[in-house]
Automatic annotation (TrEMBL):
<dbReference type="Pfam" id="PF00930">
    <property type="entry name" value="DPPIV_N"/>
</dbReference>
<dbReference type="InterPro" id="IPR029058">
    <property type="entry name" value="AB_hydrolase_fold"/>
</dbReference>
<dbReference type="GO" id="GO:0006508">
    <property type="term" value="P:proteolysis"/>
</dbReference>
<dbReference type="InterPro" id="IPR001375">
    <property type="entry name" value="Peptidase_S9_cat"/>
</dbReference>
<dbReference type="InterPro" id="IPR002469">
    <property type="entry name" value="Peptidase_S9B_N"/>
</dbReference>
<dbReference type="InterPro" id="IPR050278">
    <property type="entry name" value="Serine_Prot_S9B/DPPIV"/>
</dbReference>
<dbReference type="GO" id="GO:0008236">
    <property type="term" value="F:serine-type peptidase activity"/>
</dbReference>
<dbReference type="GO" id="GO:0008239">
    <property type="term" value="F:dipeptidyl-peptidase activity"/>
</dbReference>
<feature type="signal peptide">
    <location>
        <begin position="1"/>
        <end position="20"/>
    </location>
</feature>
<protein>
    <recommendedName>
        <fullName>S9 family peptidase</fullName>
    </recommendedName>
</protein>
<keyword id="KW-0325">Glycoprotein</keyword>
<feature type="domain" description="Dipeptidylpeptidase IV N-terminal">
    <location>
        <begin position="94"/>
        <end position="437"/>
    </location>
</feature>
<feature type="domain" description="Peptidase S9 prolyl oligopeptidase catalytic">
    <location>
        <begin position="524"/>
        <end position="720"/>
    </location>
</feature>
<keyword id="KW-0732">Signal</keyword>
<dbReference type="Pfam" id="PF00326">
    <property type="entry name" value="Peptidase_S9"/>
</dbReference>
């Protein structure tokens, strides 16, 4: 070879190699390529202004949506009288803006819930005092509509402060840890119904409705916490497992003036759920929303809070299950309300009269409405998010209830999500696509962009300079030989189609989830490319934004289609000329970890290696609400539980497995990995395992993330 040509070729090879290694795992985990958001924006009651804390969290400032200019400071630690602290962690503002609550000393309970020391600031008098005189911290403070009262929970009991009279009184007296909860929610309601508060004032400020939860008969789960102590301690909490006893719930209303508490006469199965309560605009109509235990029947009752009589307003039944997330789509107007249903095969918006009569289907088509974002009752306008162009994308729309022609508000193709002010006057749009970090903009209700809040220009430039490859779209045929699945593949910048590469498949695969979307994500797995490993992802059957039949096709048989589709995707990848079919790996966390185990057990050896992090290994170990939504109870569906158990299939495991779990996981308990380990030992299946001491389901903090992903990448390097 000509020396000059050889040196030129060598230079090109070195350039390409360098180009492929301009980012590192530590850069990714350190946030160098992570898009920034904006500080939390809290809408005022009129929807024309918003509140934010200053960067140092010393003040609560009021801004105008229209101009972005500060128009008032509602609270400042520097100027408020009797303020003996320098900063706070969060805040709430009353609708009349005369009162601000700030909190400090936040103490996390579960994923969303926390308690803290709250302080009340009287804006007009510019004075601060503790919200409660009780020694314990407070939870879920809730202002009355007129701002003159606030209800909150202390040690599972509801308390009420009346600001004008400077009084604090106790509403309930039976609250007790791990037994009775008033107003707040238990572990499973918080995790699976995504609510920490079931407590609402009536619109006339005279009544306080709440749900009383009795978890006395729920089994207690216990795990050890080590925390570098000579004698470890135990953490105990109520956790209902599939088929076991749930909390029992009832709806009550406290009459603030007479101090009488009444139990609402709501028809509810003994093991049924009340995931939401909400007053309509009429104080004599308390909407109590219920689900049966199988979660395939949703009922909404209007209850008269004084007579306690309930009237059924809306009932929906499904041959699968009702997605409880759609209970958030119910917005009450004076004479009607909105609701999202999947009754025509896709999730769409429906309008009901206040008496429960269906008036019209507002949206339609072979696509899913993915969120109902806001309602402006004055203009009869509904704002929503939809996957109408593609399951991979999201757009923001508005539609008039009376005219019914949707108008697109989002301006760029990709993934749009929006947060609206009260009554839909303004919205903050968060847009990205696979190549562009989030661009966050403020718009008015017509969609007109008013200003850019965050463009992440520096992140975009760093991402481009680092040479991150684009995700190439692929389409894979599912294991049924018919259904087409969406996917992507990543190749390194120095990709050589003449070579044979190993592949790691990234997946989650849980019901209604999506990994294959047109959205920015500079994730850890890009670091695999620097090791000469391709990365691929395929959303199998059961994932989201493709209609009810696709989304719910795994009903009663979790783990079967999902694992079969990952195996089919692996076989497809193995057929590509540049993929080594004998070196395919699979990775997943939580449900994804579960599907790693199922795929390696049902894939007939197509996977050479897998990493399963915090996996469910048998659905009998997981909580009632999530598991039974998709599987019913073990008593009703024993075969589904047996066939979908990774423990049952442990003797079928093929390939090299790394099992990772945090010992203090309150969600997917370490028990799952312990019992799976027992099954592998009994089956004489050798594997690798690593646990993280005292780490929860997210396994984060300190040096943990770097340590974890170093281990994952090295495992795939050594085993592929």
């Amino acid at each position: 070879m000509n020396k000059r040509l050889f040196l030129t070729a060598l230079t090109v090879i070195c350039f390409l190699t360098l180009q492929a290694q301009k980012y590192s795992l530590y850069d990714i985990l350190g946030g160098k390529y992570s898009a920034r958001g904006v500080s939390a924006i809290v809408s005022s009651a009129d929807g024309m202004h918003y509140y934010q804390s200053d960067p140092a969290r010393t003040a609560v400032i009021k801004y105008a949506y229209a101009t972005g200019e500060a128009v008032d400071t509602l609270f400042s630690t520097r100027t408020a009288r009797n303020c003996n602290f320098d900063s706070f962690q969060g805040f709430l503002v009353s609708s009349d803006e005369n009162r601000v609550l700030v909190y400090r000393d936040r103490e996390q309970i579960y994923r969303h819930s926390f308690k803290a020391n709250y302080y009340y600031h009287d804006v007009r008098r510019n004075m601060v005092r503790r919200l409660s005189e009780q020694p314990s911290k407070q939870m879920i403070p809730t202002f009355s509509p007129d701002g003159k009262m606030v209800a909150y929970v202390i040690d599972n009991d509801i308390w009420l402060t009346k600001f004008d009279f400077d009084t604090e009184s106790r509403v309930t007296t039976d609250g007790e840890l791990n037994k009775i909860i008033n107003g707040a929610t238990d572990w499973v309601y918080e995790e699976e119904f995504v609510t920490t508060r079931l407590m609402e004032f009536s619109p006339d400020n005279r009544l306080l409705a709440f749900v009383r939860t009795d978890e006395s008969d729920v089994e207690e789960f216990t795990f050890q916490t080590y925390e570098e102590q000579l004698y470890p301690e135990y953490y105990k909490f109520k956790y209902p497992k599939a088929g076991g006893k749930n909390s029992t719930v009832e709806c009550k209303v406290f009459d603030i003036e007479s101090r009488v508490t009444r139990v609402m006469d709501v028809p509810l199965d003994a093991d049924g759920y009340i995931p939401r309560i909400k007053f309509t605009n009429n104080p004599e109509q308390l909407a109590v929303m219920t689900l049966n235990r199988n979660q395939n029947r949703f009922d909404m009752y209007f209850v008269n809070p004084r007579s306690t009589v309930a009237k059924l307003i809306l009932r929906e039944e499904s041959k699968y299950y009702i997605d409880s997330d759609w209970l958030n789509s119910i917005h009450f107007m004076d004479d009607k309300f909105t609701y999202v249903s999947e009754r025509d095969g896709y999730s769409h918006i429906y309008i009901y009269g206040i008496t429960g009569t269906l008036q019209k289907q507002l949206t339609s088509g072979n696509f899913d409405v993915t969120d109902l974002l806001a309602v402006d009752p004055n203009t009869s306008t509904v704002f929503y998010e939809a996957a109408d162009e593609s399951p991979l994308r999201r757009n923001i729309y508005r539609i008039n209830i009376n005219k019914g022609e949707p108008q697109k508000l989002s301006q760029q193709p990709g993934y749009n999500s929006a947060t609206f002010s009260e009554n839909g006057k303004y919205f903050v749009n968060n847009w990205s696509d696979q190549k562009t970090p989030a661009v966050i903009t403020l718009h008015d209700a017509s969609g007109k962009q008013l200003r850019v809040l965050e463009d992440n220009r520096d992140v975009r430039e760093a991402y481009a300079a680092a040479g991150f490859p684009e995700r190439e779209a692929i389409t894979v045929t599912a294991n049924d030989g018919i259904t087409k699945l969406n996917g992507w593949i990543l190749k390194p910048a120095d990709f050589n189609p003449a070579k044979k590469y190993p592949v790691v498949m990234i997946q989650y695969s849980g019901p209604n989830s999506q990994q294959v979307v047109d959205k920015y994500n500079a994730a850890w797995y890009y670091a695999l490319l620097n090791e000469g490993i391709l990365v691929a992802c395929v959303d199998g059957r059961g994932t989201g934004a493709r209609g009810e039949e696709f989304r719910k096709s795994t009903y009663l048989n979790l783990g079967i289609q999902e694992s079969d589709d990952q195996a089919a995707a692996a076989r497809y990848l193995g057929s590509l000329s540049y993929v080594d079919a004998d070196r395919i790996g699979i990775w997943g966390w939580s449900y994804g970890g579960y599907n790693v185990l199922m795929s390696m057990s049902r894939g007939n050896g197509v996977f050479k290696a897998g990493v399963a992090i915090a996996p469910v290994t048998d659905w009998r170990f997981y909580d009632t609400v999530y598991t039974e939504r998709f599987m019913r109870t073990p008593q009703q569906n024993n075969s589904g539980y047996v066939n979908g158990s990774a423990i049952t299939l442990a003797d079928k495991l093929q390939g090299n497995l790394l099992l990772i779990h945090g010992t203090a996981d309150d969600n997917v308990h370490f028990q799952n990995s312990i019992e799976y380990t027992r099954a592998l030992i009994n089956a004489n299946k050798h594997f690798d395992m690593f646990f993280f001491p005292d780490k929860n389901h997210f396994i984060s903090g300190e040096n943990t993330s770097r340590y974890l992903y170093d281990k994952v990448i090295n495992y795939f390097k050594n085993n592929l």
